[in-house]
Amino acid sequence: MRRLPLTLLAASLALAAGASSAADKATTIPQSAVKTAEQLRDKAMGDDTGYKIVESLTTEVGPRIAGGPNDQRGRDWAVAKFKELGYDKVYTETVTYPLWERRSEHAAIVGPFPQPLAVIALGYSAGTPKGGLTAEVVKFDSLDALKKADPASVKGKIVFVNAKMARHRDGHDYGIGSAVRTGGPVLASKMGAAAFLLRSAGTDEHSRTPHTGVTGFRDPKEAIPAAALSLPDADQLDRVLGYGKPVSIKLDLDCGITGTYTGANVIGEITGKKYPDQIVPIGGHLDSWDPGTGAIDDGAGVAIAMAAGKMILSLPQRPDRTIRVIAFANEEMGLFGGRAYADKHASEVSKHQLGTESDFGARKIWRMTASVKPSARGAIEQIAKVIEPVGVAYDPQHPGGGGSDLSQMHAKGMAALTLTQDGTDYFDYHHTANDTLDKIDPRELAQNVAVYAAFSYMAAQADGDFGSAPDAFKNDGARD
Amino acid sequence: MRRLPLTLLAASLALAAGASSAADKATTIPQSAVKTAEQLRDKAMGDDTGYKIVESLTTEVGPRIAGGPNDQRGRDWAVAKFKELGYDKVYTETVTYPLWERRSEHAAIVGPFPQPLAVIALGYSAGTPKGGLTAEVVKFDSLDALKKADPASVKGKIVFVNAKMARHRDGHDYGIGSAVRTGGPVLASKMGAAAFLLRSAGTDEHSRTPHTGVTGFRDPKEAIPAAALSLPDADQLDRVLGYGKPVSIKLDLDCGITGTYTGANVIGEITGKKYPDQIVPIGGHLDSWDPGTGAIDDGAGVAIAMAAGKMILSLPQRPDRTIRVIAFANEEMGLFGGRAYADKHASEVSKHQLGTESDFGARKIWRMTASVKPSARGAIEQIAKVIEPVGVAYDPQHPGGGGSDLSQMHAKGMAALTLTQDGTDYFDYHHTANDTLDKIDPRELAQNVAVYAAFSYMAAQADGDFGSAPDAFKNDGARD
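Above: the input entities. Below: the structure tokens describing the complete assembly.
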């Protein structure tokens, strides 16, 4: 997932968004649809379809790095699963992206106190020369400190940025960690550094499972070796540096871009009986980072959306509008699936009723925000009333961004929600070997399915739209 | 550490131990010594010497597998640290052991669902043939189930024992895990298995850090490849097996015995002013397993004993008897340091006043048990009264075993305590990459130092002995 802090600016812009259409006829959800949504919600709360889906994906496919050996297997799984669940239409839309491969990675302090370090290469990292690279370490406590450094102090050295993150329910400190991870390597490269290390963008201070993730490198020519240390290893390196002697590290990364790869977004649809060309898009991303099995990032998101659709499929009749569940390709290395979808469907933005993606783990949803036209706020309040009993508070002050991949469609003008999960421990596991099925509580996952089933059904049955139109929300300040 | 469950039999034997000397003059601790011990205790509770020692060891030396590159560096560190702390006499006693080397390890499910598994080779494991070994997996839920299996069902296969451990304050479920780890590979080898895998002997069900540890292989000719899966990986393999299809694993271990190595126990002494040849031995083991930095196993034990001695060194005068702090060599691969010490000092067992070793982590001591002659029970009660205010309950019903290495001297007849630490989370980290400094709470470590300083000082000042004599406690049932 990507997630950046909301700002006060964002809040004020959100309130202004779509103000020009304030005179529209109010969008409402018919009472019969509200009642059905409540039934869907209650049924989903006691249903384990979502858990079974994520168990199936993480067990049968396992890690799913984009372009890796399980990319095709993941897509095959998704096609088969949509069909097994009874979706009306199952298809794929190709997505092409650079193929970056991880082969091996090792790091060790060479002196003054020789010892191995737990390390993981970052996405688009260059490899080191064969046999590794040894250089002195220069430490910075923040990205800003690196920005202010004299390039001469960095040239030829291994830059180590030791910025810390704390746990928060909305995960906002990931703004710190992801900025270091994406921007740090690019900056270090420009300053002439030999390599880049960061304290993992994570919060598991007792676990030696480093967090991978994408860098800002897009041009392989500018890439240098870039990797993350686990938090205890970052603390250890910091202690070793504290002795005041020069510290050298040997970094041996075998990884790099080897070409391009064509994968696909996998889509399952429940065809709307009244307005089949009007779409309620929900989803998650099918790719994962490779050290874990991608349970919370983002097998859970795929499972929540697939299972929500399954709840709706079990109704006696199809909803008025089409529910489109999208399992996106390659979110992790740069929103490729989301961007491909938005590019392909840009001209249909007005047909996208209201959408959002789940990509922040598997814990309970506690907050809903929305970017919709003012005359649809009443319908959002109707949705809020249905999901409030399962613990979701509606915050009308902030925008909804549609989640990571669907943020791209929101940027085109799609009305969007953000359904924020409890991310307190998300960055303990995210992008690490510990992103595995045991992190998912089936009951918490079921609450997510309940919320997605209820909202997407109500959106599909609404009398009226939520304001989707080209560029309708481009100044709402939503970041995901 | 090794730790096996106490039995009711043990309890009854403990009460009987030394009964023949019941008519001895009672051993007592002079009131002045009790008062000094209370002062030592109170000072140690607010002192960070122990924490600084374990920080120094884990930072400057890091992982310390016996015979590995840091074996010599660890000994050099211990000699220097004893001297820096002001010990009166610092020396080493050589210990020779097989040299087993870990070079690399990989495992993956080949079919039906290809994916890597987090694995670590066990001590004395054989390597696989170069390029790895692929075989079908056959699972057992316990060592007993494997014992009962038809060897034909195991021959040529990879045996997987998936026995579970739960957390307990006294860590008694390690009796399950360590039995599987030591006995399982030997049994599997005898039954003709190609290799052996176990669910790690640990309790960290959410962490993909497998637990290494020693096997029962002593003769390299009987060794087969043997390794541990992390708990989430064991659960994953179990789920994959649950599909009912044949599951094959590729195991690629590069490890094995390459010769013998001569290390040493490193000893620091505070020379007794009245009875310099009478010894109060305390200690920990200097070696560690290699994935972590050996903070809780057993840098903490070394630090507790060294720091307790430092407290006593800071008194205006030396204690009556000698305090001997021993940093044992190679506990992990078969108590080599403890056995060498006991062999070398067997004839001096009666000169060993009362001893114990710390090797169960760094959390607070909550229980004291003792194996002493009946006429020394009063002195033990005096010790108990001094350490009770810092949370230690005296259990007179069970024997004291002296800790892992000193169990060997206890077996020769040395009077011994067991000072049991809270081991609730010990097996979350023990023998894994997560055994690092951040697991140690400086205040809890200080409580250990307080208890060791107080007890060892009182033992050194006692009027009388605790019953050490050849074979004095051989039937007490103590297991550590």
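Note for the figure: Chain A touches chain B through 33 residues (CB under 8 Å).
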